[in-house]
Automatic annotation (TrEMBL), chain A:
Keywords: Cell membrane, Membrane, Transmembrane, Transmembrane helix, Transport. Its main location: membrane. Residues 1-24 are annotated as: Disordered. PROSITE patterns: ABC_TM1. Residues 92-283 form the ABC transmembrane type-1 domain. Residues 1-11 have a biased composition (Low complexity). The keyword Transmembrane applies. It comes from Streptomyces prasinosporus. This is Carbohydrate ABC transporter permease. The lineage of its organism: Bacteria, Bacillati, Actinomycetota, Actinomycetes, Kitasatosporales. It is a multi-pass membrane protein. The chain crosses the membrane at residues 36-61, 96-118, 130-148, 160-183, 204-229, 262-283.
TrEMBL record, chain B:
Keywords: Cell membrane, Lipoprotein, Membrane, Palmitate, Signal. Pfam families: SBP_bac_1. Residues 1-34 form the signal peptide. It comes from the Bacteria. The keyword Transport does not apply. It comes from Streptomyces prasinosporus. Transmembrane segments: none annotated. This is Sugar ABC transporter substrate-binding protein.
Length: 298, 454
């Protein structure tokens, strides 16, 4: 009663009306902006971005010697030439193998390493993290000769395995840091709850944590795939057999010292770009989430 | 090592651990980058049985892969007990791949070795001297003497031959015959006609230009060709052999005139022209003239057909004499580390023989090194090659030999000075300052070379 009376007899003074939050104002101003102010800059940017792609398509699809600005009459001769005569069918298979193997190896090892960095504390952890970061400053070219000697000792020169291992090793530091940040964002209490329910650590990780890491895994995996797909140096140096080479090395051989077949080069460029475009088209949503979530939390 | 669950360990002594980690990282990085090889590749190799497998690295893989595979198929047919594994490597990456293999092992038996990279490989002791093998070969006396001397001179100063010549390239002035006819201009056989045509053919409003200049990668060699061609100076070094003539006042004046063509009669985008862009825009646009070499002839034929252009030797100077700078002679070398030198030499002999050399150069559009191949009928049909071969052999042309033997030549003529040439084109640096800078570097490199050679 007293409480009721007190509350009814003495109404509390009206709280100060808070100012409308600024983001709402910004959103309104954005919504009210004329459409052209949004689409014109975007359109100009798009034109600048797409013209080089159009140029590549044009050279790839128009006959040799044509100066037409549209790819008509259209020909697939350049694609046939690079795919069959220049060995791109083989290079493509090799690149897929290197890319997929690097993706799985990087993701698997980075997941284990990232979990250790996120959930355990050990004596040299800070130093280890620093070493991971420092490893990003060492260019691959600097390590080329030592890596070459190591792979030669292991009888792995001229084997796709050497490229896969080298690519994985160079991808691991950044991937581990990204995944450890992801794992830190998963509440530790979730794992503890799973342990209480009878799970061991591995099962708790697999059932509770792993499903929540999907954006991070996709980001790390796709980054590893795209990087190894495009990477040129290790494949050039460690692979001597023509049948073992990858797409970037094949593309490079389409330009000789003083002659270049632009149609074949453009067709080769499209063959090289298509898998990357497809990968990004499918995973862009998770990729952006993955990088932003993994990059800023520390 | 103690490991604990995060948040339940206070992390003692972290400053010390961080320092230790930094030190460890530094040690690992230094260890990883250290080279433990003496630079001699993988040993002295062996003569071998003359049969079995050999590996051949092509220094200009890609466009020439097909013709090399044809030559290899012919060789394997003639030598069924030898198997040649072909590896085509892009010319831009060849030197770094061979250098890595010299340091780390894994060199092939045979490799394409042009004059421009010979000094570096020879200095590292990676190549087998070939004079004795050549003396006892059917090739003896059949190969172009000038090409042999060019490769011998480029080999590192010990007067040994490390590469058997296969081809010579030469600077060519390509011009659009249709545009010249329409404008009523004479063939640009002299430098005066060249400059006159460049101006008269230019109509920027119609996106038509008289010339395309090379402002990006490879610009220096082309600028040197234009300079020495105009000045008529016939030697890269003065009479003492210690000072370069590159900054001679006549050359400075010639470069000023040549660089002034930029934007006046050329597209502004030429500032970043490497040969790919330069050739592509000449083949697909309306540009009157292009300086390049024999290598792009087939590209022009594909793009323009044979009716719309001609490729002629560089213009002659006011005294009627033609002076050109040397193009690197291409050849094939035997790596010292080969375990099957006998079979490798058989392949080199076969590839440089009249039949193979003719076949290869017909495809590449270059001047054959074998005397008999140089007489073949196809040369008369490939006009730029014929004119280049004539110019190189009939005494009408003086070749200024560039110092490929200097280990620093590639750095001086590329990375160090190409950005400065762009400054000259943009008017941010004078031609004199540019050439004085190059001359200073060259004189120092030559002095160092002289000192090393005793």
């Amino acid at each position: 009663m007293i409480t009721k009376e007190a509350t009814t007899a003495a109404p509390a003074p009206a709280p100060a009306v808070p100012e409308p939050p600024r983001p709402v104002q910004r959103r309104r101003a954005w919504d009210e902006a004329p459409r052209w102010q949004i689409y014109l800059p975007l359109g100009i940017y798009l034109v600048f971005t797409l013209i080089p792609f159009y140029w590549i398509l044009l050279f790839a699809l128009r006959p040799a010697g044509s100066t037409s600005l549209v790819p008509w009459p259209m020909t697939t001769a350049h694609f046939e030439k690079v795919w069959t005569d220049r060995g791109f069918a083989t290079f493509f298979q090799n690149s897929v193998l290197v890319g997929v193997a690097t993706l799985f190896m990087t993701t698997l090892v980075a997941l284990a390493g990232g979990y250790a960095l996120a959930r355990f504390d050990f004596r040299i952890k800070r130093g280890f993290m620093l070493a991971l970061l420092c490893s990003q400053f060492v260019p691959g070219a600097l390590l080329l000769v030592p890596l070459f000697e190591i792979f030669a000792e292991l009888q792995m020169i001229n084997s796709l395995g050497s490229v896969i291992i080298a690519e994985t090793v160079f991808q691991l530091p950044l991937s581990m840091i990204l995944l450890s940040n992801f794992i830190k964002n998963v509440p530790y209490s979730l794992e503890e709850a799973a342990w209480v329910d009878g799970c061991n650590r591995f099962r708790a990780f697999r059932v509770v944590v792993l499903p929540l890491l999907r954006p991070g895994l996709i980001a790390v995996g796709s980054f590893a795939f795209v990087h190894s797909w495009n990477h040129f140096l290790f494949a050039l140096m460690f692979l001597n057999n023509q049948e073992k080479q990858t797409v970037p090395v094949g593309l490079n051989t389409l330009m000789s010292a003083d002659s270049v077949d632009l149609g074949a080069l453009a067709a080769g460029g499209i063959i090289a770009a298509v898998p990357v475009v497809i990968v990004f088209a499918f995973i862009q949503k998770w990729l952006i989430t993955g990088f932003s979530a993994g990059a800023v939390k520390g | 090592m103690k490991i604990s669950i995060l948040g339940r360990n206070t992390g003692r002594g972290r400053r010390g651990r961080t320092s230790a980690a930094v030190a460890l990282g530094a040690v690992l990085a230094l260890t990883a980058t250290a080279c433990g090889d003496d630079g001699s590749g993988s040993g002295e190799g062996a003569e071998g049985s003359g049969t079995g497998k050999i590996v051949f690295w092509d220094n200009n893989g890609g466009v020439r892969t097909d013709i090399w595979k044809e030559v290899i198929a012919d060789f394997e047919k003639a030598n069924p007990d030898i198997d040649v594994q072909y590896v085509g490597i892009a010319s831009t990456e060849y030197q770094s791949k061979v250098d890595t293999a010299i340091q780390g092992g894994g060199l092939p038996d045979v490799g394409g070795i042009s004059a421009s990279m010979l000094a570096g490989f020879a200095a590292q002791g990676a190549l087998e001297p070939l004079d004795e093998r050549l003396e006892g070969s059917s090739l003896n006396g059949k190969l172009n003497k000038d090409m042999i001397e060019s490769l011998r001179a480029a080999g590192g100063g010990d007067d040994q031959l490390y590469s058997v010549p296969t081809s010579a390239n030469n600077g060519v002035l390509y011009y659009r015959t249709d545009m010249f006819e329409k404008a009523g201009l004479e063939e640009p056989t002299t430098w005066d006609r060249f400059f006159e045509a460049a101006e008269k053919l230019t109509d920027k409003g119609s996106n038509r230009f008289g010339y395309t200049i090379r402002g990006g990668a490879g610009s220096i060699a082309q600028a040197l060709d234009a300079m020495y061609g105009q000045s008529g100076i016939t030697s890269f070094w003065d009479s003492t052999g210690k000072k370069t003539t590159v900054n001679d006042p006549k050359n400075v004046k010639a470069l000023e005139k040549y660089a002034a063509l930029f934007k006046k009669v050329t597209p502004a985008a030429d500032l970043n022209n490497d040969f790919t862009k330069m050739v592509a825009q000449w083949d697909s646009g309306e540009i009157g003239m292009l300086n390049h070499n024999l290598g792009s002839y087939q590209d022009h034929v594909k793009a323009l057909g044979v009716e719309k252009f001609r490729g002629i030797p560089q213009p002659v100077g006011p005294d009627g004499k033609r002076v050109q700078v040397s193009n690197p002679v291409d050849g094939i070398g035997l790596f010292k580390s080969s375990k099957n030198k006998d079979a490798a030499w058989k392949f080199i002999e076969f590839a440089a023989s009249a039949q193979s050399n003719s076949k290869f150069n017909e495809s590449a559009g270059q001047v054959p090194a074998h005397a008999d191949a140089a007489k073949d009928a196809w040369i008369a049909k490939a006009e730029p090659t014929k004119l280049a071969a004539d110019a190189l052999s009939d005494g009408s042309t003086t070749i200024v030999q560039l110092p490929y033997y200097l280990p620093d030549w590639n750095t001086i003529s590329k990375a160090d000075n190409e950005p400065n040439f762009q400054k000259v084109l943009l008017g941010d640096m004078s031609a004199k300052d540019f050439l004085d800078g190059i001359a200073e570097q060259l004189n120092a490199a030559q002095a160092e070379w002289d000192e090393q050679m005793g």
